[in-house]
Every structure is written in C-alpha cells, then in structure tokens.
Amino acid sequence: MKIRINGIDCEAQPGEFILDVARRNNIYIPTLCHHDAFAGEARCRLCIVEVVERGRSRVVTSCVYPVAGEIEVATDTEKIRSLRKTLLMLLLARTPQNETIKKLAREYGVTEVARFESDPQEECILCNLCVRACEQLGAGAIYAVNRGVTKKVATLFEEPAEECIGCAACAAICPTGAIKVLEKEGKRIIWNREFEMVPCSNCGRPFATAEQLAFYRARLKVAPDRYGGDRLCENCRQKRAAELASLMSPARLR
Ligand code: SF4
After folding, report:
1. How far is the CA of 144 from the centre of ligand 1 (A)?
2. Cα Rg of the chain, angstroms
3. Which of 103, 123, 179, 181 is 20–30 Å from 153 (CA)?
4. Coil/strand/helix, residue 186
5. CA 100 distance to own-chain centroid
6. Which residues are CB-neighbours of 182 under 8 A, at least 6 positions away?
7. What is the 99 CA–ligand 1 centroid distance (Å)?
8. What is the CATH number of the domain that holds 29?
9. For ligand 1, what atom is nearest to the CA of residue 179?
C-alpha cells in the first residue's frame, strides 16, 4: 500500500511502522531509543509525527504506529517541532551535561531547561536499549531499578554482577554514551567489575574479555579456536576472511 510522508509517496507493508517506512525512504525522523535490532518501545517519543487518517489529524509515535491504510504523514510541522522541543527540554533537564542531548536540544532551539532538580552527572535517558541488548544476548546482567525519579539502570544491588561478561554491548548500543567503559593495560572495567582482556592472536591487541569468548563459544556451540577464528579481533577476522575468499576464488582454483 502507499502512504505519503512529507508529500513523498512511499510503499508500505500493512502493519509496518511509520518510522521504518520513513527510514527506508531516507526521510529523517529523530529518535534516541530506537534500534533496528529491536521493536520500538516509544520511550523517548522524539519520533512523533502528525498523521492524517480519514480526514482526522493526530500526533502519533512513529516507531510503534503501524500502517493500516492510506495516510498522510508530516514529520516536521510547527506543532511537532514544538512538542519535540518540550520533550528535549525535559531530557536536557534530566541529563544537563550530555553532549548528544545538548546537540539535539540546540537543533530544536531549547534555550531554557525545565526547573527540576537533577544529578549533573546523569547521562541516561532510560531508553532501555542496554537492558534489552543484555537480555537478548542472554547475559541479563542489568536491569531498570527503582521507580519514578530514582529509576535507573544498574546491576542487581549495584554490585559487580556475576552474569556480566564484560562484552560492553550495553555501552555500544547506548545512544547517549551513558555507560562508561574503561580499557587500560589489558583490562576492561564496566559496571564496577574488572575483566582481563584477551589479546588477538594475530595483531596482539586486547579485544574481548575471557568471559565474553567463553560465553559465545558455549552459546554458539563451537569448539575453542575453530578455524583459528575466535581468538582474532574483528579487524584480523575480516582480513583473514578476505584472504580465505581470495584463495578460494575460481581464478585461483583454476
Ligand atoms: S544507559 Fe544508555 S542505553 Fe541504557 S537506558 Fe540509559 S540511555 Fe538507554
């Protein structure tokens, strides 16, 4: 079916979310809590858009709004910009020093911050992506704890978690860089736990924690060092794959 976004005709599947259709058609809609690996959760709400459906206009959250019929979508109207400005004002009040939020707030002309008390060190916007990534991976080491203004992401009792494998997937997916990872002298520190890092067997660069490699081996059910691959960093792994591919090319095999 066809929908129109900012006057552009876009092909959409029934049930597809507006944000996905827009992205596929290179139409920008801001969002912080959306990641292609996960279904939308409408946490940050920055992806709000105006939808006209059967003559009725309303504001919807595009990451969770499924296309069910012909609609007109406008992603950047005066009303939407004003609502996003308010949302960013609140996010900035929560995370006053965060560069990602400050940049977005500037783009929407936020000059004043809502008058709430906040921790000047806070950088988390509670988007939940890190918790979902950790859960999906199968580690389940971090959770959203507490309620209301004290809600935050933490390990159980904020102790170094046994379940944590130090993979730092949580930090990689975090849209605001709120999760701090310290890597120094062959060690990685994350969530108050220190991990020894394993050096790449080719270039020698520490690239993963021993717990992370053991976890992947167990999950993927591969023997240690099968193909000589699981001790290689991503760079060396790609180089080796390219070398193998060129050795196996029909021209070389002739
Ligand atoms: S730490 Fe980052 S990924 Fe986790 S909830 Fe906060 S902003 Fe989202």
Report:
1. 10
2. 22
3. 103
4. coil
5. 13
6. 188, 189, 190
7. 14
8. 3.10.20.740
9. 1
Note whether 47 and 152 are same-domain residues: no
Structure letter (DSSP) for residue 66: B
Tens of pLDDT along the chain (254 residues) come to 999 999 999 999 999 999 999 999 999 999 999 999 999 999 999 999 999 998 999 999 999 999 999 999 999 999 999 999 999 999 999 999 999 999 999 999 998 776 777 888 999 999 999 999 999 999 999 999 999 889 999 999 999 999 999 999 999 999 999 999 999 999 999 999 999 999 998 999 999 999 999 998 888 776 655 545 668 888 888 888 888 777 767 666 56
Q: Which atom of ligand 1 is least distant from the CA of 126? A: 5
Out of 56, 76, 96, a domain closes at 76
Matching residue, tokens 């730092």: 168
Q: Which residue's alpha carbon is nearest to atom 7 within ligand 1?
A: 124
Task: Please tell me the residue having the least CA distance from ligand 1 atom 8.
Answer: 127
